[in-house]
Specification:
By secondary structure, the chain is an alpha+beta fold. The chain is built from 13 helices and 13 strands. Helix 3 packs antiparallel against helix 8, helix 8 packs antiparallel against helix 9 and helix 10 packs parallel to helix 11.
Amino acid sequence: MTQGQTSAIDLTLGDLARLEEVVDREALSDVCRSFFELFGLSIRVLSKDGTLLADVHQEREICQYVNRLPAGAAACARTVAQVKTATPDGAPVLLPCFTGGRYRVEPIRYQGRQVGRFVIGPYLPAETRAVPRSLLEIDPGVVDDDALRALAEMPRVRPETAGRLAAHFRKVVDLLLFSSHRAHLTSEMHVASVREGYRELAEKTANLQQAYNRLKELDKLKSNFLATVSHELRTPLTSIIGYSEMLEAGIAGDLAGEQREFVETIRRKGDHLLALITSLLDLSKLEQGALRLQREPLSPKALLDEIVTTFMPRAREKSVSISVDAADDLPAVDGDPVRLRQVLSNLADNAMKFTPEGGSIMLRAVETDLVGGEDGEMGMVLMAAARPAIRFEVADSGAGMKQEELTRIFDAFYQVDGSSTREHGGAGLGLSIVKRLVNAHEGEIHVTSEVDVGTTFSVTLPAVETDL
């Protein structure tokens, strides 16, 4: 059995291993002091292995007298050593001193086990009237009258009185031990509980760290896989699209009606697949932090006008009105022109997908302030200084979304309608890329939506700060 197992068993059973581990020494000393003040008797408390835990005594005049004698000091040392090593086994041990005094050594038992002992004395038996022969024989220099006068100062106790005093002290010590042991046991149980809780927490933390490291490794492998596959797919796909365009242009000869239709379908689907592969590459670069922004001042209204021009043919085809609401004198946005067009195009494309015939799409830009990041803590937001910014809004009158879906729409590959029969295509990467690009620009993105009413995406980006 290991030491840890032994401690656990002792703690569970409430066993008292060592007296000095649980007893309150200050309280024990106070008890001994009260005993001495009441009865005038010296008292010492020792643990099972002889460690002195409390000692309240007064050196008697007879002890001072004999210690001045050459042989007396040696005899006194032998008596003290005998008292210290006395081991009462269930019953008190009475040890005589050569001075005529007596020591009473009593066992301290707790829960059926002896855990220590206490010593009362020295004291004279009440019947002592003369100098004992043992004291006269200890040294030739002993003077009867001086020895008798010194002995008279030592307290006298009858045997039955000494027994009652010892029993009284034992009861007080029992109460003190019971209180100290229970307090110690409660403390140990609390420590054991805290230690076990810490062990479980450390184990869970280690498991979480291991799972986190594994997820990071898998995420890195996934990103590398996407980048590799996308790159390897894009090269042959570019050739497919290029040859399709050449066939459409008639470089290989004129095409019949169905042939042209088939080639147009190949080229259109190739463009769609190329856009998907490009999105995968962009996502991989954003996750790895490999995407570099080329920032420059950009006109908000010019950006929105360009997006509307791009989507106008689709809007007319679907009978959807698309318009811009932005002042010409808005401050410039500090951003990458290619990536900001990608952000706004993705939002406009979503709006176009989910807006029914006869609906409307509004692209708006207004001046505002930007304080911190959307994931920043409230304290940091309160301490941060406001920065001039431009808020872009893409609002549609489409199908809208449920509130519980709004927290997930920026997750990669998530689609509001994930069924195999969904009406609108796509891989669910557009909004995830948009959010990451906005974050890369130190901006914020928010969405509000209501089913059958419409959706509004708001993108807030830092403006170019001008010197006053």
